[in-house]
Amino acid sequence: MFCHTEMVSSQPVPIAENGKKKKKKRTRATDHVPGKFEDLYKLTAELLGEGAYAKVQGAVSLQTGKEYAVKVSVK
């Protein structure tokens, strides 16, 4: 049977001065890439998917030659 007096005491967890935890800033792919999309990638004719508000198209990096899928939103 469990008895609370047998529990090992723990140390308090430090909390930020304002009483809230700090959130990590999420890094986005566009945060570190200078230049326009057109200067970095070439869209292919390959249509991978299509929805009501966007389509997904193939693209190739002009720097590395890697293939990517790009979501293109319709304005």
TrEMBL record:
GO molecular-function term, one example from the UniProt record: ATP binding
Keyword field: ATP-binding, Nucleotide-binding
Region spans: Disordered: 1-30
Residues annotated to bind ATP: K71
Record carries keyword Nucleotide-binding: yes
Protein name: Uncharacterized protein
Organism lineage string: Eukaryota, Metazoa, Chordata, Craniata, Vertebrata
